[in-house]
C-alpha cells in the first residue's frame, strides 16, 4: 500500500512512518499542504491512501483533502486531527474523506483503519457476509495487527509512554481516540464500548435521531418492515433488475448488480446511472454496493458501520449519515427528495425496492 503522509510535526511524522513501514507500507512524507499536493500530482501510479493532518502552517488539511478528492476520486483519504469538535469531523467527511483518526491514537488503530480502507478499495469490495460476519471480522487483519502493535514503542518520540498513543501538540494525553458508537453485537465492540463509556463518551444509541442527519439529507420516512424478509439476498452478486417509476431499467451483465437505472460492476468497481458513470470514493462505492446487495432490506446504522468501516471502528455514528448524504448528492435527481436510498428514522437506511422488482 502506497501512503502519502502529510504531517507538519517531524516527531509525529517519524513515528507514523516507522509503524507504517514495519507493516509493509511504502510511505512518502510531506510537511505542508503544497508539498503534499505536488507529490500527489507527480506520483505514478497515484497513491493508494493519503493521511492528512488538519492543523498545518499554510493551507489546511481540509483544503488538501478537497483538492485531492477532486483530482483523485478513488484515492483513500484519512484525516488525522487533534480536534475533538464534531463539526471538524463532519467537515472532513463532507469534503471527501473516507475516515478520520483522532489524536491521540495507537499505532494499531491507525494500521487497522488503513487495512479496512484498503479492503474497500480492492476489486469486489466487501460483500455482506464477509463484512457482517462477526467471527470473520474479529479474527481478521485488524485484530491481528492490533495484537501485534500492543507492545507500544515507548522510546519513539511522539508517543505517550503510558498508553502507546500518538498525542500530537494539542491533544491531551489522557484522551481516547474518537467517540464510541453504541450498541453492537460481538465481544470486541462491547468491551470497547464499555471502556469508552466509563471515560464519559457518548454511545451510539444515545445519539438523538434529530442530531444525526441534517434536514437537507433526510430521506423518505418509513418504518422498518421489509417486505422481502423471507427472500433476503445472500450477499452474492446476481442479476437484479428494478425500475424506478418509468425510468429505463439497466441490463445486468455477469458479475453485476442492477437496480432501476443503476448498474454496478464489482470487478471494475464502477457505477453507472442510465449509462453515465458516477464516480464514487472507495467508501461511497462500498456503501452503495452493500445497499444494492440488500435491496429492499432495512440496514441499521450499526450494521452499516460494522460492514463498511469494520468492528474496530471507534468513532462517531454520523460518519454513516455524512456518506449517505454525499452519495445522494451524486445519484439522486433531487437529493432532498431521494428516490433510491430511503431513511428509516431511528434505525438506518435501505435501497428502495421498486414495484416491478
TrEMBL record:
Molecular function in Gene Ontology: phosphorelay response regulator activity; transcription cis-regulatory region binding
Q: Where is this region: Disordered?
A: 158-258
Q: What Gene Ontology cellular-component terms does the record carry?
A: cytosol; protein-DNA complex
**Known Gene3D superfamilies for this protein?**
3.40.50.2300, Winged helix-like DNA-binding domain superfamily/Winged helix DNA-binding domain (1.10.10.10)
List the GO biological process terms: regulation of DNA-templated transcription
Which protein are we looking at?
Uncharacterized protein
Q: Residue spans with biased composition (Low complexity)? A: 173-187
**Tagged with keyword Signal:** no
Residue spans of biased composition, Polar residues class: 158-172, 188-198, 215-246
Q: Name one Pfam family in it.
A: Trans_reg_C
> By its UniProt entry, which PROSITE patterns does this protein fall under?
OMPR_PHOB, RESPONSE_REGULATORY
Is-annotated flag, keyword Cell inner membrane?
A: no
Which CDD domains does the record match to this protein? Answer: REC_OmpR, trans_reg_C
Q: Which organism is it from?
A: Paenibacillus baekrokdamisoli
The domain of life is Bacteria
Q: Which InterPro entries match?
A: CheY-like_superfamily, OmpR/PhoB-type_DNA-bd, Sig_transdc_resp-reg_C-effctor, Sig_transdc_resp-reg_receiver, WalR-like, WH-like_DNA-bd_sf
Q: Which UniProt keywords apply?
A: DNA-binding, Phosphoprotein, Transcription, Transcription regulation, Two-component regulatory system
Amino acid at each position: 500500500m502506497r501512503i502519502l503522509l502529510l504531517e507538519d510535526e517531524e516527531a509525529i511524522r517519524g513515528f507514523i512512518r516507522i509503524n507504517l513501514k514495519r507493516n509493509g507500507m511504502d510511505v512518502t512524507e510531506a510537511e505542508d499542504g503544497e508539498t503534499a499536493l505536488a507529490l500527489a500530482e507527480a506520483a505514478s501510479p497515484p497513491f493508494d491512501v493519503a493521511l492528512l493532518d488538519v492543523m498545518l502552517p499554510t493551507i489546511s488539511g481540509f483544503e488538501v483533502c478537497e483538492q485531492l478528492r477532486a483530482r483523485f476520486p478513488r484515492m483513500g483519504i484519512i484525516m488525522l486531527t487533534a480536534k475533538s469538535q464534531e463539526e471538524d469531523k463532519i467537515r472532513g467527511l463532507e469534503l471527501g474523506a473516507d475516515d478520520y483518526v483522532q489524536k491521540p491514537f495507537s499505532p494499531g488503530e491507525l494500521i487497522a483503519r488503513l487495512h479496512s480502507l484498503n479492503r474497500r478499495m480492492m476489486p469486489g469490495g466487501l460483500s455482506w457476509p464477509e463484512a457482517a460476519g462477526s467471527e470473520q471480522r474479529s479474527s481478521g487483519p485488524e485484530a491481528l495487527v492490533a495484537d501485534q502493535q500492543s507492545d507500544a514503542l515507548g522510546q519513539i518520540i511522539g508517543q505517550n509512554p503510558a498508553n502507546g498513543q500518538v498525542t500530537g501538540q494539542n491533544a491531551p494525553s489522557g484522551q481516547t481516540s474518537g467517540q464510541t458508537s453504541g450498541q453492537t453485537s460481538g465481544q470486541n465492540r462491547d468491551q470497547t464500548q464499555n471502556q469508552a463509556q466509563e471515560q464519559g463518551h457518548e454511545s451510539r444509541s444515545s445519539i438523538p435521531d434529530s442530531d444525526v442527519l441534517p434536514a437537507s439529507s433526510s430521506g423518505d420516512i418509513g418504518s422498518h418492515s421489509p417486505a422481502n424478509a423471507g427472500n433476503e439476498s445472500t450477499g452474492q452478486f446476481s442479476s437484479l433488475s428494478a425500475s424506478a417509476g418509468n425510468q429505463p431499467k439497466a441490463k445486468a451483465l455477469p458479475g453485476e448488480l442492477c437496480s432501476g437505472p443503476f448498474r454496478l460492476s464489482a470487478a471494475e468497481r464502477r457505477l453507472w446511472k442510465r449509462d453515465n458513470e458516477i464516480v464514487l470514493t472507495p467508501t461511497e462505492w462500498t456503501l452503495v454496493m452493500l445497499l444494492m446487495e440488500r435491496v429492499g432490506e432495512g440496514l441499521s446504522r450499526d450494521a452499516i458501520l460494522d460492514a463498511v468501516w469494520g468492528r474496530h471502528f471507534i468513532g462517531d455514528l454520523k460518519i454513516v449519515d455524512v456518506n449517505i448524504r454525499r452519495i445522494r448528492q451524486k445519484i439522486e435527481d433531487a437529493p432532498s427528495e431521494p428516490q433510491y436510498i430511503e431513511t428509516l428514522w431511528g434505525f438506518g437506511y435501505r435501497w428502495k425496492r421498486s414495484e416491478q422488482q
